[in-house]
Design a protein that fits this description.
The chain is of the alpha/beta class. β10, α14 and β11 form a beta-alpha-beta unit.
């Protein structure tokens, strides 16, 4: 087989799945709306289940829903028949995946939904299947072909199942008003969590924030700069409003025999650049690079300093 033939196979698979997705898009109707509203209104959790390749997709759908504000978990249908039905409560709702709709392993879960009155939503390829007939909502695929050469290996069907699950999860997310802050709470680790950190999450505050009052002697200001180890000190007035900033660089530029007997008012840079507490740390880093500085004082609406955000803290947290 030539390289060109291999590429042609890959392109054909992607083209078949793309065409099937476009057809699926056109099928969304009131059944999809009904499914989203049932999922939104459930008092319990979303239980996603499926056998074989559908099970792998079901796991991903459950994980996606859980990460965007809808409590969800995967239950293996075969294990459900051997005790894991105990994981279900009468407040839960079931989402079952099966291309054929005839997976015998789903029978006990279907029976459980009927016995205890749980809503059942299916993502299925056969509207006349046993699973579809037993479901309250049927999200059925349009006619399609699997993308393998003999038309049997789950390829297009699993792509359609995954896409439908994503559509449900994203519609639920928006319907619930799930915010970027909510998302960050569920993704505290790794690069994604770092990119969603805010200035207030990383700033040095309280006793760690380097500040002195106006009219303070430079001897005290230098001690504050050295003791807090952030390379600067903020100057506040009698109303605790930030009015100036002195950096290590300012000390070097004003180095002379009279420096330590001067007051901070004589040395400070007035009206320093500041940011609010809710700015994303990654945006603050961009502004630092743009302005060629290494820190920002974080202030409230009245100009009171809340903390100091330093570039090094951002880098240590993985924000870059």
């Amino acid at each position: 087989m030539t390289d060109e033939e291999i590429i042609a196979i890959g392109k054909n698979v992607l083209r078949m799945e793309q065409e099937a997705l476009l057809k699926l898009t056109d099928t969304l109707d009131g059944e999809f709306v009904k499914a989203v509203r049932l999922l939104h209104d459930t008092k319990g959790r979303v239980i996603v289940t499926g056998m074989g390749k559908s099970g792998h997709i079901a796991r991903k759908i459950a994980a996606t829903m859980a990460s965007v504000g809808t409590p969800a978990l995967f239950v293996h249908p075969a294990e459900a028949s051997h005790g894991d039905l105990g994981m279900l409560t009468t407040d839960d709702i079931i989402v079952a995946l099966s291309n054929s709709g005839e997976s015998k392993e789903l029978s006990d879960i279907i029976a459980y939904t009927k016995r205890f009155g749980l809503h059942l939503i299916c993502i299925v390829g056969n509207r006349e299947s046993t699973l579809a007939r037993a479901s309250d909502v049927v999200l059925c695929f349009p006619p399609f072909q699997e993308a393998c050469s003999f038309g049997m290996a789950p390829t297009t069907s699993t792509t359609l199942s995954l896409a439908m699950g994503d559509a449900l999860a994203m519609a639920l997310m928006d319907l619930k008003g799930f915010s970027k802050d909510d998302y960050r709470e569920r993704h505290p680790g790794g690069k994604l969590g770092a990119l969603l950190l805010r200035a207030s999450d990383l700033m040095a505050s309280g006793k760690d924030m380097p500040v002195v009052k106006q009219h303070t002697l430079m001897t005290e200001a230098v001690v504050e700069i050295s003791g807090k180890g952030l390379g600067c000190v903020g100057i506040v007035d009698d109303n605790n409003v930030l009015i100036g900033l002195i950096t290590d660089g300012d000390l070097r530029r004003h180095m002379n025999v009279n420096l330590l007997s001067s007051t901070v008012d004589e040395i400070m840079t007035r009206n320093p650049k500041t940011i609010g507490p809710n700015i994303l740390a990654v945006e603050a880093v961009r502004l630092m690079n743009e302005k060629k500085i290494t820190n920002f004082f974080v202030i409230d609406e009245q100009g009171h300093p809340l903390g100091l955000l330093h570039l090094h803290r951002c880098l240590q947290a993985g924000v870059a």
